[in-house]
Amino acid sequence: MGRSAVAIAAGCAVVACVASAMMVGRRARRWRGWSRVVRVLEEFEESCATPVGRLRQVVDAMVVEMHAGLASEGGSKLKMLLTYVDTLPTGNEEGIYYALDLGGTNFRVLRVKLGGQPSAVIGCEIDEQPIPEQLMTSTSEELFDYIAATLKDFVDRENETSEPSRGGGRELGFTFSFPVKQTSLSSGTLIRWTKRFSIEDMVGRDVSQSLQQEMSLKGLNMRVSALINDTVGTLALGRYHDEDTVAAVIIGTGTNACYLERADAIIKCQGLFSNSGGMVVNMEWGNFWSSHLPRTKFDVDLDADSQNPNDQGFEKMISGMYLGDIVRRVMLQMSQESDVFGPASSKLHEPFILRTPLMAAMHEDDSPDLREVARILRDILEIPDVPLNVRKLVVKVCDVVTCRAARLVAAGIVGILKKIGRDGSGGITSAKMKPLRQDRIKRTVVAIEGGLYTNYTMFREYLNEAMEQILGEDITPHVIIKITEDGSGIGAALLAASRASSSAVGAL
Ligand code: BGC
């Protein structure tokens, strides 16, 4: 069975189970308000619907917003940020480079040894730790003190025989995965925080300078030679291994994409200097918005209760930080309209208690009696003794949320491909076009990183299935979505290396 067939079969199985559960429920009349719960589910499912026609509207809206964001500063909710990355790694980079990766749930320090042979990472040491929760809302001084201290520990623990990178000093690539207005490849100011971070005094300040200051205070002889977004690191690593890579997408705690754009298409920066005639653009697509997005009242409430209302609308429908919480909100409404979950559990009122990995575990529970679902409901949400048909109902809610998210990501990716003329449409996104000659269609690789795609099978299946539906069977085989693990870390080291060595640059 093909991947999409598996996804469809799984989806149908869930629907069938829930339908039979509903019948049982109607017959049993044991619970007060079962029919109201069914209605909540039906309405929710309907308002999350993403038929292919709607996805194509999202594709087109994405293209329109990309043009608007490139035309003028503030022209769109899509910021389309310049990265000053006009050359990407070629595979010839050589030496030892460091990288810091800040932006998701964990903070990582890396030391990467590049072999100089075509695309050989011959050594990579990684130190990874969860970011202490309180630092996400503390002061910039505390945050950068922590980062520099962790980096210093890492360097101090280095093997005596470690050679420094070319040129003697230590070159550092800093992946800072938030919207940054770059002023050069190695500097830029924070526009605003996203995800769980909110440190007011940092907004508007230069990110590299803040790190550089703390590093000097700690006596670290390192230079931030590249300040990048995680999407850009992923694109760099993708390109290092495969020269057909043209875009990168992250679907983790947050979501975003970047791609290679022609310099002359970046109208808002006429006369932009570029060695290669192109530049990587950080779209910040988490903030994309369109009236074609299927928004529910649960999304509206989640947004209103969030740290950043009216921002990151696309991200709030898609990324790992939010999916579990949408499920919790639907379950809360069900519990308020009926007693299917038994006596009200106060845990259902707790924001973010149902983390997305738990939601994925419920969604993918394939035990006949949905044991994992029962365990999570009991242990995390303090809802014990949930009957099987109610567990199936919960699985269905997870399915609806994940299916919508994955299909919207697919539409976003096709939007990028369409903007750069790689969706095979020649301007029209339709699977019904006259087929192009297969030998004229360029192979196109999109690098992807983030737990939702790499660890969550159902999410991946739904995304791939939607790509096929939108692109059609002629184009689909030419578009490769490639998992590019560690791109946000290794990619930063690669870009530091590209910067350090002018011989290591390649045209875009
Ligand atoms: C940030 C992006 C980042 C993405 C994935 C979003 O919240 O705004 O800069 O690339 O998360 O980490």
UniProtKB/TrEMBL annotation:
Pathway assigned in UniProt: Carbohydrate degradation; glycolysis; D-glyceraldehyde 3-phosphate and glycerone phosphate from D-glucose: step 1/4; Carbohydrate metabolism; hexose metabolism
Alphabetized UniProt keyword annotations: ATP-binding, Glycolysis, Kinase, Nucleotide-binding, Transferase
Enzyme class: transferase
Lineage of the organism: Eukaryota, Viridiplantae, Streptophyta, Embryophyta, Tracheophyta
Matches recorded under InterPro entries: ATPase_NBD (IPR043129), Hexokinase (IPR001312), Hexokinase_BS (IPR019807), Hexokinase_C (IPR022673), Hexokinase_N (IPR022672)
Family in the record: Belongs to the hexokinase family.
Entry annotated with the keyword Nucleotide-binding: yes
GO cellular component annotations of the record: cytosol; mitochondrion
Chain segments annotated as coiled-coil in the UniProt record: none
Protein name per Swiss-Prot or TrEMBL: Phosphotransferase
EC identifiers of the protein: 2.7.1.-
Pfam families: Hexokinase_1, Hexokinase_2
GO molecular function annotations of the record: ATP binding; D-glucose binding; glucokinase activity
